[in-house]
Design goal:
ADP-ribosylglycohydrolase fold; 15 helices
Length: about 300
């Protein structure tokens, strides 16, 4: 259980550090990054949002808002409770917010409906970037519950088969890593996603400056994750690609954190992360995983969702 807790904390810190690291290079090209930083590897802030060093963006903030909604509702993922939490977050005027997220929250405010209609144009990475609390809550749940909770939170703003599939693969990878799974085991889950949705194939030329489209996001994340065997190199690789770097950094960070644990995170990165954010991530990670005991198998026949997933 102690190992689970430290992996959970590492996943949340990895998310926040990847977010903060990538925010500096968001929307830049690899050439621009190289010219300005040579190799970007420190939490220096700046970027198009002009952040203070160690500050995070909507990736971390929405994850924390989702986690607080779950904890406040006794561990139940309810779309209205989640939408209310997101609405409160948006009311606080966050430093950044995606267009699809803003539309979904605005629709909820106007109609009281906490689920957007299915739309292929919502195949962005916004639901995936904030999915970590679902994995922490469901580290020992049946796959059916993990995926149902994923769709409940995702469909508040994003409702698309492609986005659902990508987010669910990341969740399965996170849970496997939290349980102590290996990199090859995570690769099996990623390969299963590619079998079902070939557009996610990542064994090809490196994705540079990946967009907010979940396909490009996850191709970049998978390429970095499976090309290296330590957290620091994975994060440095993915954020130096530019593009939607805060989100590729956040997703790569949560996966690598869960896989390699807290000791793999450079101490300088942890110390440079905003102290308030760091404490919130640590407390919420522990609160969400508190409970379950015996793991239920994930990889193999159960790794694929049932029904139309």
């Amino acid at each position: 259980m102690q190992d689970l807790r430290q992996r959970a904390v590492a996943a949340y810190l990895g998310l926040a550090i990847g977010d903060a690291l990538g925010a500096t290079t968001e929307f830049m090209t690899p050439r621009e990054i190289s010219q300005q930083y040579k190799l970007h590897r420190h939490l220096v802030g700046g970027g198009w949002l002009h952040l203070k060093p160690g500050s995070v963006t909507d990736d971390t903030e929405m994850s924390l808002a989702l986690g607080e909604a779950i904890l406040a509702n006794a561990g139940v993922v309810d779309s209205v409770v989640v939408a209310e939490s997101f609405s409160e977050w948006m009311r606080a005027k966050p430093v950044d917010i995606g267009h699809t997220v803003r539309r979904g929250i605005s629709r909820y405010r106007a109609t009281g409906i906490a689920e957007v209609a299915e739309d292929p144009h919502t195949a962005g990475n916004g639901a995936c970037m904030r999915c970590l609390p679902i994995a922490l809550l469901n580290w020992n749940s049946p796959v059916s519950k993990l995926l149902a909770d994923s769709r409940t939170q995702a469909h508040v703003t994003h409702h698309c088969e492609t986005a659902d599939a990508g987010t669910e693969a990341v969740l399965l990878m996170l849970v496997e890593a939290l349980r102590g799974g290996s990199l090859p085991t995570l690769r099996t889950i990623a390969d299963q996603l590619v079998d079902r949705f070939p557009q996610f194939a990542f064994d090809e030329k490196k994705v540079l400056a990946p967009s907010g489209w979940i396909v490009e996001t996850l191709r970049a994340v998978f390429q970095a994750l499976f090309a290296h065997e330590d957290l620091e190199t994975v994060l440095v690789d993915v954020v130096n690609r530019g593009g939607d770097a805060d989100t590729t950094g956040a997703i790569a960070g949560m996966l690598a954190g869960a896989l390699y644990g807290r000791d793999a995170i450079p101490v300088g990165w942890i110390e440079a992360l905003d102290a308030r954010v760091r404490g919130h991530c640590e407390r919420q990670a522990l609160a969400l995983v508190n409970g379950c005991q015996d793991p239920i198998p994930l990889v193999g026949g159960n790794a694929r969702s049932e029904g139309d997933a």
